Amino acid sequence: MNANVNPLRDPRDRRLPRIAGPSGVVIFGITGDLARKKLMPAIYDLANRGLLPPSFALTGFGRREWSTEQFAQVVHDAVRENARTPFDERTWAQLVSGFRFVQGEFDDDDAFDRLAETVQGLDAERGTGGNHAFYLSVPPDAFPVVLRQLARSGLSDSTGDSWRRVVIEKPFGHDLASARALDDVVSEVFPPDSVFRIDHYLGKETVQNLLAMRFANQLFEPIWNANHVDHVQITMAEDIGIGTRAGYYDGIGAARDVIQNHLLQLLALTAMEEPVSFDAESLRAEKEKILSAVRLPPDLSAHTARGQYGAGWQGGEEVRGYLEEDGIPSDTATETYAALRLDIDTRRWAGVPFYLRAGKRLGRRVTEIAVVFKRAPHLPFDLSATQELGHNALVIRVQPDEGVTIRFGAKVPGTAMEVRDVTMDFGYGHAFTENSPEAYERLILDVLLGDPPLFPHQREVELSWQILDPVINQWAADGRPETYQPGSWGPPSADAMLAADGRTWRRP
User: Fold this and answer.
1) Which of 111, 336, 424, 473 has its CA 20 to 30 A from that of 462?
2) Known binder of ligand: residue 37?
3) For residues 253-273, average pLDDT
């Protein structure tokens, strides 16, 4: 019996065959927030669910002068604070025996030589079989030096049946040219099928359920086109500011941070045609077709909007404006809100605008895809009976409260014929007894299995930058972003953008 399998686990769990083989993960940037809040807890949760082999090894690489025992305590604290599954001493004892820590700088040849020795030692001591994934949880400007060190030290070399893989966090460059330059460096070290570009949104259950909802049901597909859909709104709103991320965020902004990757991926999954299968190649082919068909409107000034949150009150608390945040230059033009209209030149979507928006310090935290349908061509009611009736809509909630809502018209109880909007909700938490795995659990496991359907290919990255680069360039010529109030839903120009098309933003 696998010593790492939880005995309380349901044997009917279909995830059992997806147990990773002998392998290890090396995390660069092990002291960062992503590693502490997401990566280390996700690895523990995978182990606790019996999805990692007993031989699994976790190696941290960082500048801190930690012993392996000190590193283990850091992981322990992160797991206790952020893990999704309960803490289990047996799981922990099995996992911690595979921990190692290597101290050094990214440009330190000796440190990478020690890392190579550590990995070789794990192969001999733990039986990891030469299979190792290198997770680059580091700033993008550190990617080239780490990748070249992996090549120089031989860590990127696989032999026989063993594998070596690299995991890269977004952003994948800051424009098309830099994305291509980064790919050139990656391609020198790892073959394409060994490169995993993480977009954690694609690991969320609701995003995957979008594909199940569309293609497993006859109910939606016949109306999923320009004959019935008026427009689509894709929203990623946060109710917090930048926090301690000034060093990363300033100069990046909302468009590069989330629209180029998360929201354009959601657009592609919403709009793509049915793939011939759900393997990586087929999914990528359909997403690439959609991204290559995306067109920007001719007048970018009228069909895009950007803003910076100002100072004010939000949720009963006085908050600072973006320009007052620690580490932010007073003259920066980085946007904390971005919105744009996109059109898709295909027969299915001709004439249907897709509106994308993302921002910080907005009314509430929510990510959703709203497919808004056209009004009925004829309403056999008095105008007064339907004056409160809006468009039908199907809303896929990605976070929080994952699920699907359908908005439609229904008669108000009473003697008069009065029709008003009502909603019908499906929530993951109510429909299924299992807790949804955290996105990083699914994605890390997929890396170890070599299963790439949820990872964007370089071609998708380049197509996304081809869409966004003209918008960024236009904004650079337009001066400063517009200020908006914290707790609002963005700058007035965003409302004006939709009003020009005779539409309004949904209030999530």
Assistant:
1) 336
2) no
3) 92
Local confidence band at 115 (pLDDT 50, 70, 90 cut-offs): very high
Secondary structure E strands in 316-445: 317-319, 337-344, 354-359, 366-373, 393-399, 403-411, 419-427
Mean pLDDT, range 256-267, rounded to an integer: 92
The annotation status of 460 as a binding-site residue, yes or no, is no
Identify the structural domains of the chain with CATH numbers, from first to last.
16-169 (3.40.50.720), 202-499 (3.30.360.10)
Alpha-carbon distance of 437 to 46, in angstroms, equals 9
Cα–Cα distance, 432 to 352 (Å, whole number): 34
End-to-end distance of the chain based on CA atoms, in angstroms? 48
Q: Name the catalytic one among 132, 174, 231, 262.
A: 262
Record the tokens describing residue 165, joined without a space.
């893989």
Q: 3-state DSSP call for residue 66?
A: coil
262 is catalytic: yes
Average pLDDT, the chain: 86
Q: Burial letters for 168-185: b for 16+ Cβ neighbours within 10 Å, e otherwise?
A: bbbbbbbbbeebeebbeb
Question: Has 214 been labeled as part of a binding site?
Answer: no
pLDDT above 60 (res 384):
no
106 is in an annotated binding site: yes
- What pLDDT digit, counting tens, does each position of 70-96 carry? 999 999 999 999 998 999 899 999 999
